[in-house]
Amino acid sequence: MPRPISVTISVSALSHNLAVVRRHLDQAAASASGADGTQWVAPSIWAVIKAHSYGHGTAQGVEGFAQADGLAMLDLAEALECRESGFARPILLLEGCFEPTDLELADRYRLTSVVHSREQLDMLAHSRPARPLDVLLKLNSGMNRLGFAPDAYRAAHARALELRDRGIVGSIGRMTHFANADGPAGVAEQLAVFQRVTGDLPGPVSISNSAATLRYPEIALARPGTASWVRPGICLYGASPFADADAASFGLKPAMSLRSRIIATQDLRAGDTVGYGSLFTADAPIRIGVVACGYADGYPRHAGTGTPVVVAGTRTRLLGRVSMDMLAVDLTPVPDAGVDAPVSLWGADGPSVDEVAQAAGTIGYELLCALAKRVPVRTVS
């Protein structure tokens, strides 16, 4: 029989989280609309499904986010998979196209592309699409990854307008990405740059990731008749973009649950150690369980003693070093647990992926994306 480890992906949790984000934006629009007749509308939602829906699976993302206004990802193959599965709404390539053949496929499959460099504009200028390609022209407002510098943006926009006149480009939107929406620095500085450089330009706007969508929903609101988009990612999977607020506080549900079972137990005496490097030493008699899960399954090797684990419905802790295929847990809080006892490593009936990530000195994003192919996946409605 196979090892007793598996991951469950809940499509209904994905749909629930999308609905939570939409309600959050709708409430912001209702609050901002004034008694004097000033009206604001909630932005449309690009559901970000890059990295195979943050490790949840592209097909699961398409199903779970069927009510999204559009999907966004990096990989062209994932975009084509979404189209071929029947998703008919807009699909955004977040890093744009990398070579001319990508533009041909973007044309054939009716994709929208980010344009963030002079080289991408050059490539567009030499293309011959059957229909104009909708683009989002990206401003580097301070993240310093992708995008045109503020003093180069207007010239890039003017060139995009020339390409529109030639029938190569269709809609020209404006886009940026916030570096500190999840922290105390916030978005004010970058937002001011974006508004100063692009504020008088027409076209759709997309500026907010998960953190900005949840913490600053008002900045993405639009006037009636104008187009604005947000790009939530991690929050749609039931994890938090914040160190100081958990996903549950926003009403989000975990969509991925990693589970296994105890495959052996050991009774230790005071002074006995556990695992490679003997990183845990018992200071009194203790009973431990050995769980069929390790770093080859995607569990973080750098998670140490004290990382939360749930055994048979009771919260306990990891002990010692995580091995390739196994880890050890403290059975003191659950003395009746033995071989075959269920173990929840993160997810719906265990610790949150963010708790595990924090204990391991990383972020939930990394753990969700690192799930190994050898772990069997079960999708539930």
TrEMBL record:
User: What is catalyzed by this enzyme?
Assistant: L-alanine = D-alanine
Tell me the active site: 50, 276
Q: Name one GO biological process term.
A: D-alanine biosynthetic process
Organism, scientific name: Bordetella genomosp. 11
Q: Which Gene3D superfamilies match?
A: Alanine racemase, Lyase, Ornithine Decarboxylase, Chain A, domain 1
Return one GO MF term. pyridoxal phosphate binding
What pathway, per the record? Amino-acid biosynthesis; D-alanine biosynthesis; D-alanine from L-alanine: step 1/1
Domain annotation Alanine racemase C-terminal: ranges? 255-380
Tell me which residues bind substrate. 145, 324
Pfam families given in the database record: Ala_racemase_C, Ala_racemase_N
Q: Which residues carry this modification: N6-(pyridoxal phosphate)lysine?
A: 50
Cofactors per UniProt? pyridoxal 5'-phosphate
What SUPFAM superfamilies does the entry give? Answer: Alanine racemase C-terminal domain-like (SSF50621), PLP-binding barrel (SSF51419)
Please describe what this protein does: Catalyzes the interconversion of L-alanine and D-alanine. May also act on other amino acids.
EC annotation from Swiss-Prot or TrEMBL: 5.1.1.1
This one is known as Alanine racemase
UniProt xrefs under SMART domains: Ala_racemase_C
